[in-house]
Amino acid sequence: MKESFDIAVFRGDGIGPEITDPTLEILSALASQGGYTLSFKDCPAGAAHYAQTGQSLPEASMQAARAADAILLSAMGLPSVRYPDGTEISPQIDLRKALNLFAGVRPVRIFPGQKTPLNMPAGKEVDFVLIRESTEGLFHTQGRGEVTPDEARETLLITRKTSELLFKFAFSLARERKEAGRGPGRVTCVDKANVFRAFAFFRALFDAEAANHPDLASDHAYVDAMALWFVQKPWEFDVLVTENMFGDILSDLGAGLMGGLGVAPSADIGLDHAVFQPCHGSAPDIAGQGVANPLAMILSAAMMLEWLGLRHDHPAMVADGARLRAATEGVIADGSVLTGDLGGRATTAEAAGAVTAALGDA
């Protein structure tokens, strides 16, 4: 059994380093107790690095990411630092495309005790996963769109190869969740097939894959209706799969259901590599003040442990990922040690310390 794992760490911009440091401390403590080793390699990248060097993602950092067992990436980008064409620095998107991380996994959970803007009916619990295709779609021509004095164009691309991988991943996840008792085993294709031929193609590929899984349910929804249903009945969903831009928008709405981006983790997963990162931005307005929320970063690290454990048949890592997720959710549900974005007054260190204490009590 593999016992040593190399983790490429991108500390990011703004509050990125502040939420990365306590997360690495928690991971190191879990590894030392679990009998495995996590070796962290710092990988310079991001907007601040671009401002200093003219490189947003140096080749050495890319090579380190390729060689790593997993990639832990913190908040990236600064609104004040942009490429000459006006777009923001986004190495996380470059990594997704370069490493073919086609499945953007965005869990949405509202558990007992968690604050939410929703008026939740008694006895309901939200626990679904949005899977966003992360390499093509409307992001296909990122940085290469056609702009003239009179018009601008971007090209949406949906390919058979990537879509088939995406849908296989979605149905596999639905089966895993069903076997774990966390969902009914249903995958919903979210598209706009009533208007765009590209999405009719997307839906047809989805239906072809669904036919390979008669033990699982499948259905469809238009993206505008799904945005409504996220607010009206989010407890009805299990696994949702959609195009890149639609997923980008819906994932932030999902984070809003949970109370904010500060508790929203994510992963971008391919056949050979995976990146784990919080959904929120770099929040330069509070950088250096010690008040940033580390919980989304810690939850992303929990996803990383579970993924590594499953990939390498390492039960202790899977268990540690589940423990870390449960401990963090316990801190959120308890509500006594929360940072300002969640209505509390805790510092970054205090919030991370609460997770550490919860792990000790588990």
Task: Please describe what this structure looks like.
The chain has 362 residues and is α/β, with parallel strands linked by helices. The protein is 42% helix and 17% strand. It is built from 11 helices and 12 strands. Strands 2-1-3-12-11-4-5-10-8-9 form a 10-stranded mixed sheet, with helices on both faces. Strand 11 (265-269) and strand 12 form a beta hairpin. Helix 1 (16-34) runs parallel beside helix 11, helix 5 (160-179) packs across helix 6 and helix 7 (223-232) runs parallel beside helix 8 (244-257). The protein is globular. The mean pLDDT is 95.
Any chance you could write out the topology, listing elements then pairs?
Layout: E1 4-10, H1 16-34, E2 37-42, H2 47-53, H3 59-67, E3 70-73, H4 91-98, E4 103-110, E5 126-133, E6 146-147, E7 152-153, H5 160-179, E8 186-191, H6 197-210, E9 217-222, H7 223-232, E10 239-242, H8 244-257, E11 265-269, E12 274-278, H9 295-311, H10 315-334, H11 348-361
Parallel strand pairs: 1-2, 1-3, 3-12, 5-10, 8-9, 8-10
Antiparallel strand pairs: 4-5, 4-11, 6-7, 11-12
Helix pairs in contact: 1-9, 1-11, 5-6, 7-8, 9-10, 10-11
